[in-house]
What does this fold into?
Amino acid sequence: MIRKLLTLTGVVQGVGFRPNVARIASQYDVSGLCGNDDMSVFVEAQGEPSQVRAFFDAICADLPPLATITSRRETELATIGGEQEFRIVASRRSAGAITLIPADTATCPDCVADIADPTNRRYRYPFTTCTNCGPRLSIICDVPYDRPLTTMAEFAMCPSCQREYSDPSDRRYHAQPISCFDCGPDLWLEYPNPDLSPEADESPTRYQDSRARFENVIAEATGLLHAGKILAVKGIGGFTLICDARNPQAVETLRARKRRLGKPLAVMAGSVAAARSIADLSKAQLQALTSPAAPIVLAPMAKTYDLADQVAPGLGDVGVMAPYTPLHRLLLAVHDIVVATSANSSSLPLTYRNDEARALLSNVVDAFLMHDRGIHVPVEDSVVIAADKKTLPIRRSRGFAPLPVQLGGSDRCVLAVGAELKNTFALTRDQLAFMSAHIGDMGSLETQTAFEKSVAQMMTAHRRTPELVVTDMHPGYATRAWGQRYAERIGIPVLEIQHHHAHALSLLAESRELTTPMTCIVLDGTGYGTDKTIWGGEILRLGENPLEFERCWHLPGFWLPGGDSAIRSVWKSAAGLAWEHDIDVSQLPAFKHSRNDAEPGAAGSDEWDLVQSQLENQVGVTRTTSTGRLFDGVASLLGVCQRATYEAQAAMELEAVARRCSHDHHLEISTLPELMTLLISGIYDGRPTACLARSFHNGLAQVLTAALLSVQESPAVIGLTGGVFANRLLSSQLQQILTDARYQVRQHQIVPANDGGLALGQALAGVLRR
It folds into this structure.
């Protein structure tokens, strides 16, 4: 007889790991115990050597659906006489690091079946969960992950739930969010204006007739949706605004009340069939849609698309997700499709508390569908984009955060504060980088406060204080200022990493097969360069030491009048391009009426004169090589978009227009001036806008390839990173050309190519710094 200790780290808490170990133990002739502490799951097994070895191998091979293992260690122990059974022991607390916190996940198939089964005691129960699904990150207040340390602590289990929780053979064994009609959270419908609320009978006690009350609440909420009303529904990680996506008036009202004029709205489909009726989804994209993470999937609109025009105006893609909680499933019939957008403006963090929702959303919604299960960590929906037959991350949050990326290198605790837009941050420990959920745009005090709170929560959970803070170089970033203040307060150094260098490092960090030197094409909208200009169309080569890089090539620059104002007034980028390439825009259809204000959205006389004066006198202009601003300028020149109401609107609409052209448009060009000449000639010749937009995408891919061939002597691995690579048309065209030229192309698979993945690159830089 021998006795061994098996210690496992990874995603091993909150995923049914201990019950799974106990189940496997029943299949082998072993005794012992299993439990968890702040860092790991530990298993002690006693028996014949072959039985213990087979038992440990089975544990690692037969994992619960949501578990992952990052390390395995075995230790010899002294045998214990008289031990007859295998048992689960209580969690142990200790100082130091913690185990990996699991992500929130969508309702699993078994729980979906429970909700649909009239004989099941959780039939149509809106908070049904088990060890394989439901809230995790959003409800965890501290570790180890046990019910007393979650927001479910206030809900004492009823005898039936307690039996399930204590039964090793039950799917809900040690499922911390377990509850039922008799002991779980309450659900109610609340009206912002009490005068509009239907008269109710005398309020029952909390659990009196809860099944009937919940059914009435859901029926009333469904009726409001069908009547064209707007609801704020509390989900796993925060509130979502929903309305009937096929009702033009409801969608228009939601946009007006939320002041979201043009930005596309995500939708939630009641079934896979409903999702496929509005979006062309490949097998891989369907798998993403129905996966435990249940992200929003951006995909081309199907021919049978029938949603209101205002859901995604001017675009050819739609963002669709599945109902990821039991409550959403009960609200939606299989054919229903509703708008499902985060209950916040772009400048504010996600609304996730009931009192917050009442204060901020009462002028937006007609009713609140609320519950009293607390949310400790707000978590936005994740977003992936359909790219050919695969999906690429656009926003990494619910279902993925805070699962780590393996970095290797030194065991240094680094805080990487991320970018200004689409902010996420990262904390490293034990050679892992832990990425936060999506925070948002850092332009408001409220978002900066949410950022600071989230950083404090993560550091508390991981029991670590950083040794180094890594920030972007941009002097105007709020994250940079915060990082400098924080580092000065606790007396640690700050490392500044150039924006596009961090993008390249981010791709290097998640692609463990990549080595340096490595060449990356980095395309985005804004990044502060080492020469104090705005970069964004770069070919960078990382050296043997990845902290060093060479700027091998960049798009030809142009003067951007008005600085950041050009991001909204995209015609200013066109003015800068025209100045650079000696184009008389006054004769172009999109600009010929500008001086008398006859063209809606184009520059007025005073604006145009001011911009021309800025360019002539080189006052109030910034030099840029930004691909994002190049897209803006071309969209303006072609008359596609003159003013943007949301980030990347002009580029997204330009791609949508280009997709309407079915011609090949193979171009023999290698420089940007050649491409601009071709486009302007095409405008004067009256060529269709869609064909010119397609020519621009294809031509830019040719320009980038020619530039790469001029700096890369032989075919090699090439990384593509930066927010512009969310453009599927440019990305696929460039990949095809590079692949035909025998380059191996690598793109992001774990974190977004946009600024939402920047913190990972910053974190790698911090870990590598000597």
